[in-house]
Amino acid sequence: MRKLQVTVAMVALNCTLFTVSAQDLVVQVNKPVAAVQPTMWGIFFEDINFGADGGLYAELVKNRSFEFLKPMLGWKELRQTGKGKTLIINQGNEKPQNPRFARITVDSGSYGLSNEGFRGMGIQKGKQYNFSVWAKSGEGNLIMKVELVNTAGKKIGEASLTSFSNDWKKYTVSFITTDTASKGLLNVFFEGKGMIDVDMISLFPQDTWKNRPNGLRADLVQMLADLKPGFIRFPGGCIVEGQELETRYQWKKTVGLPEDRQLSINRWNTEFPRRSTPDYFQSFGLGFYEYFQLSEDIGAEPLPILNCGMACQYNTGEVAPMDQLDPYIQDALDLIEFANGDTSTKWGKLRADMGHPATFNLKYLGIGNEQWDEQYVERYRAFEKVLQQKHPGIVLVGSAGPAPNGPRFDYAWKEFKQSKAGLVDEHYYQSPEWFFKNATRYDNYDRKGPKVFAGEYAAHSKDDKDAESKNTWISALAEAAFMTGLERNADIVQMASYAPLFAHVEAWQWRPDLIWFDNLRSVGTPNYYVQKLFANNKGTLAVPILQYGHVLTGKDSIYASATIDQNKKILQLKIVNASSAAKGFMITIEGASVFRGGVWQVLSATDPLAYNTLDKPSYVVPISTPVKASGSRLKVLLQPSSFNVLSLPFNKKSN
């Protein structure tokens, strides 16, 4: 890991000493150029890198219902003092959404199963853990003993269940752990003589987000809440498409009781041979209801993306024929009903039955993820025709394809200018140099067409030995420079989200990612802190920040944008110094004066390839200092290779 040195910049009013000569910048508070939408900065969620199962979804048991392609994957038999066997039963059409269960037969003594979790189980000392199982007694009177053990095999928690019925029932028991383990195991023993059927063997921490059963991992949700996102895009991403239509994401399979949700292979299971992950499946315990609930919890607009009758064009490229597209369109109509429908409707009633009688107030809907060419536009238009007629208030999002330019991109934009799409989703995974050069990307976009959703972007730079190493400071700095261009063009760019969001350090397929985690810890990358600084200092109106009458888009390695929060009366200046030298500026504020109480946040590193890790999470983090300036002029000294956010209380001047 490279060493990092952070120097806190200082602000002074009427200061006369600079290590470099000050240049004039002008902020025109009295000349707003665009409204900044509440949805401007959001987050993109996709179940990649163990983002859901093994990540955000707090379930600790892998393959809890024996539905993986290999039913015993994640499990192994335990024979201590007795004899027994496990037989996997497939009920077939009797219960097609969850057909398998395990039949345990014990001849004598103690026989059991051990589950390895998702690269182990993260267990915290002194915390409550809730075990549950669906079971049906066949014969005999077996005792089920549950225990957590650490990597040394030491028992750190235990409980037992008895008196099982001859009918399927859910059984629960809780216990407090005696120690911490980053890679614990769950052992389930059966003692006595007899037979029992078991399914949905589950273990959750009590301390989920808001302590909800079937809940989310609290520390990861808190990382999202701290971003104060304007929206959450879900469930992806390429996962929406599937490698073929059969494995596309189908939202109806992700709602209702968790035990009735139909597991599916995750497309990232085999997508990259170099990072093959044969134990990567989707239990859908984290489904569309939980996505909507999470959005509501953290004050973000939900932005679901639905399959448009097309599988991934990089894989099979399968499409549903146009005369067979109705079920896909009906899925969109039913989703709107699930989110917004009255409880007297079929899908509105299901939402209420799941615990949320009030609507989720869905406003946005994406049609397709990253599709392109005529076959996509034709299918998009079929969706648009129906949805605009039945739900004209829903803002539709179309795709500009996988690249930020080229014939496919140009074709998509030409077609969408003739559509009723509210937003067009652009994606760019490029080098840091590209992001620096494209801070002016939207300066000359057509203001009469659809608005822009920068739906997936990340600067890709070099990596090192650590999983987190591709999230370098230079990539974050380049993104900050680019984002000043998004903010300056807030009239055309109304949504933006970094991608992907989460990655487990031992189970990733794609890098870089915004947040890295293991079974107990999580860490924000430099890129995370760039996103947080923008989103936490968003403002309501973009205002000009100029040098000699021109916007700052990279001349002398300086990039800048400015906003004001009309309600809180705060001026937010965001300035990137991408050079290796300090830069001094005299800033004149037109139409307002600032007063004491401001804050200057600096994100900086001397090494462009510096990054944060789980073991060393604070190499690149914002440093805050108070601003004691007042008046309409102030001098600032920007440290080399730094992203600076100045939040300054202001009063408007009367004309």
TrEMBL record:
One biological process term from GO is: L-arabinose metabolic process
What are the GO MF terms of this UniProt record? Answer: alpha-L-arabinofuranosidase activity
Going by the record, the broad EC class of this enzyme is hydrolase
Q: Where are the transmembrane segments?
A: none
* Short name of any one Pfam family annotated for the protein: Alpha-L-AF_C
What is catalysed by this protein?
Hydrolysis of terminal non-reducing alpha-L-arabinofuranoside residues in alpha-L-arabinosides
Q: What protein is this chain from?
A: non-reducing end alpha-L-arabinofuranosidase
